[in-house]
Amino acid sequence: MKKVIIFSDGGCHGNPGPGAWAAVLQYGKHVREITGGIAATTNNRMELMAAIESLNLLKEACDIDFHTDSEYVRNGITQWLTGWKRNGWRTAAKKPVKNADLWQQLDAANARHTVRWHWVKGHAGNDLNERCDELVQEAIAKVKNSHSSAELASALKVFKEAEG
Questions:
Q1: pLDDT at 160
Q2: Per CATH, which fold does 2-150 belong to?
């Protein structure tokens, strides 16, 4: 099984607001950087998208050390997910799990691999975590530059309405 190291990050300008995700994947001497963004989202959704997209990029089952600065993602996938599934995607307080659509995608992507999930402190000098943050900021700027203020405001309004 191929051994892969992944670092990921996600972020928003405003929460919710325009956001982006990024990941750096390493396999031996090979390094690949991936990013994506959206006009209106939340930080947590972008953290989840970084994990989903990076795991889905891999064409075959891999042995992965996955590094995230999101305790939400790391705790969700390693501690909370089993209970959410058992409870029909409801929390212990019987409320619907936030971002259940993305958690289900991450669960499916994670199941294809052997993944060890690691939390890394953000903005603490870890080179690959810092690189992911740079990529996120660049991708957010790209999203903001490709939409007018009115388009961003409209997207945010639609997002907030959908969130309830």
A1: 94
A2: Nucleotidyltransferase; domain 5 (3.30.420)
C-alpha span between 156 and 18 (Å, rounded): 8
Note the pLDDT of residue 43.
96
Catalytic residue IDs: 9-10, 47, 69, 123, 133
pTM of the model: 0.95
Query: Looking at the chain, how many residues does it have?
Result: 164
Of all helices (H) and strands (E), which one includes residue 44?
helix 43-57
pLDDT beneath 50: ranges in the chain: none
* Domain coordinates in residue numbering, the chain: 2-150
Asked if 117 contacts 74 with a C-beta cutoff of 8 angstroms, the reply is yes
3-state SS string for 50-111: HHHHHHHHCCCCEEEEEEECCHHHHHHHHHHHHHHHHCCCECCCCCECCCHHHHHHHHHHHH
CB of 12 closer than 8 Å to CB of 140: yes
